[in-house]
Specification:
This protein is globular. The chain is α+β, with helices and mostly antiparallel strands. The two termini are 35 Å apart. The protein folds into two domains: 171 residues, Gcn5-related N-acetyltransferase (GNAT) (Aminopeptidase); 200 residues, Aminopeptidase (3-Layer(aba) Sandwich).
């Protein structure tokens, strides 16, 4: 068998090949959900992705006899390193065939890149920021993936461990059953706590009738300000800047069903908590084969506005630190649960949550919920590069 060679991506053609390798590797998987080629090209474009204001990255392909057999991105988030006092290189968007020579060549390329950039540790899989997919699946291989996460085959973690990578942090994802006769829940507790919190602290829920209302009231910025403050203590988080927020708003706001946007305000009208969900696009993305054109957009529109999935993705749930443990989460769910019931959703999928985040884990206590996926961020210390004469 011929040797594996590593090629740095330098052209748009190679970048497209980098992106499409994931689709080719998982095209027969019923659980993997492909990214749109067009969206991922924008993510990797410094002119279009505001994260490049404080990140740098290179992309590598593993080739054997001219055929792509693996890929990986090497990233430094300088803002996160400054925030957390670290000097890490990240790896992300990693995929490879079940061949240790391939996975080792990819990670050696990242490690060498990290040394050349003065880093002392490699961590991942991580993206540019927390808004990108993070973590390698270590459990739940028979579960459908989501739009905001990645799927990988069971052999991936074994490869990482054989290369000396160890656990950095773990995340869990939950399947939350929408309450019905088959899946009873203590919904009354959410409603009772929500009512008590609203009266005690002078809080109220705000709903929106149009995207224009959100824009005119500056609510997009207010929502992401809550996310920045609520997520600040979480592993590796780097605060979103104004350009990033504008980018996410322009990309996702047109897709959001406003019935699943819930905002809690205090007595002064200040936003203190947000909950945002949307119908799952996983099956639509599979049918689109990872391309928006020529017909991918139609599958997307059908899933959003005509024949939606019976799964709701819980994209963002955030409460300002000073308002946590005061029943504010109950106000969010007391609003979102009835809407989910009325629209016929069967269950919700949570965003990955740190296994150590007890506050986040505890908010599902009154619902029929189960951890159905686990994912891991790995780490490995970088040894100083050997030089002649040492």
């Amino acid at each position: 068998m011929s040797a594996v060679t590593i090629k740095k991506v330098t052209t748009r053609k190679d970048l497209k090949r980098f992106i499409r390798f994931n689709y080719e590797l998982y095209k027969d998987s019923p659980y993997a959900v492909p990214d749109f080629l067009e969206d991922t090209l924008n993510t990797f474009d410094p002119r279009k992705n505001a994260a490049f204001d404080f990140c740098e990255a290179d992309f590598f392909l593993a080739l054997r006899e001219g055929r792509i057999v693996g890929r990986v991105a090497a990233i430094i988030n300088h803002k996160a390193n400054r925030t957390w006092g670290t000097n890490n290189a990240r790896f992300g968007w990693i995929d490879f065939i079940d061949d240790e020579e391939v996975s080792r060549a990819l990670m050696q390329a990242v490690e060498q890149w990290g040394r050349e950039h003065g880093c002392d540790k490699v961590v991942g899989p991580l993206g540019f920021t927390d808004m990108d997919p993070e973590g390698m699946l270590t459990g739940g291989y028979d579960q459908l993936s989501t739009m905001s996460t990645t799927y990988n085959y069971p052999y991936y973690p074994r490869h990482m461990e054989q290369m000396g990578y160890e656990k950095e942090v773990d995340w869990v994802e939950r399947k939350i059953m929408v309450p019905d006769k088959e899946h009873p829940a203590h919904m009354d507790k959410y409603f009772r706590v929500a009512e008590l919190s609203a009266k005690r602290y002078g809080l109220h829920v705000r709903k929106f009738k149009s995207v224009r209302e959100i824009k005119r009231g500056g609510y997009a910025q207010k929502i992401f300000n809550v996310v920045n403050r609520a997520y600040a203590p979480l592993y590796g988080y780097s605060e979103m800047n104004e350009r990033q927020i504008d980018q996410y708003v322009s990309t996702y706001l047109p897709l959001i069903d406003l019935r699943f946007v819930t905002v809690v305000e205090d007595s002064r009208g200040e936003v203190i908590a947000i909950g945002i969900g949307m119908p799952s696009l996983s099956r639509a993305l599979q049918k689109a084969h990872g391309r928006l054109f020529p017909l991918g957009w139609w599958h997307l529109l059908k899933a959003l506005f005509f024949h939606h999935s019976d799964i709701i993705d819980l994209l963002l749930v955030a409460v300002l630190p000073e308002w946590q443990n005061k029943g504010v989460n109950a106000m969010l769910f007391a609003d979102l649960i009835p809407v989910s019931q009325q629209m016929g959703f069967r269950f919700g999928e949570t965003h990955p949550q740190l296994e150590t985040n007890e506050k986040s884990q505890g908010q599902w206590a009154y619902l029929d919920a189960e951890v159905h996926k686990r994912r891991r961020c790995y780490r490995k210390a970088l040894q100083p590069q050997n030089t002649d004469g040492q």
